[in-house]
Amino acid sequence: MAERPKLMAGVLRSLRAPFVDSCFHPVVPFPAQRTYKVPFTSLPIDSGAFVQEDYCMELYESLFIIRPSLSDEDTNTLIEKMKGVADKTGAEFIKVENLGKKKLAYEVRRERKGTYAHFYFRAPNNTVGELERAYRMEDNVIKFLTIHHEKELIPKRPVEPSAQESAGGRV
User: Per the domain annotation, does 42 fall within a domain?
Assistant: First the structure.
């Protein structure tokens, strides 16, 4: 029974050691209060949650499939809703496309067809989490995929035939 208080005191001393200097003044390893210019989150600022300050805009591509039973107006409304979710977190859209109805390779949620929508955008890293959360919450989205690009996609240039090829010769 006598050993237990000594053990606890040693544990507390070892936990406290990095944060106390030689004169026994507490050393704070990080600022107690950080202020953020523009937090990219859907949480209220005063909620006490940790908000990561990140202004690094990364390239992402997101494709999601919508139930084909929705009308064209409802489909466009849903696409705008998903675009709004990403806009709230600071996304900059490069391309937004409605690719139309297509046959699926396999049945997904008892659907054989789906309306494809494609986003290509630049956004902070927490945008993907918010966007995919919105996809999961929406019943009309049957499948989705979001990928991160290292570099910006550059469209391929058409290759011009050389003078020898255009004359009918082989290269």
Answer: no
* pLDDT by 10s per residue, the chain, length 171: 555 555 445 544 544 444 444 444 444 444 444 444 444 555 555 655 555 554 688 999 999 999 999 999 999 999 999 999 999 999 999 999 999 999 999 999 999 999 999 999 999 989 999 999 999 999 999 999 999 998 877 666 676 766 666 666 555
CATH number at residue 135: 3.30.70.60
Name the E strands within 55-110.
58-66, 92-108
Per the CB < 8 A criterion, the answer to whether 35 and 70 are in contact is no
Domain limits for position 112: 58-149
Q: How many domains does the chain have?
A: 1
pTM to 2 decimal places: 0.59
**How far, in Å, CA of 35 to CA of 130, rounded?**
22
Residue 64 lies in a domain: yes
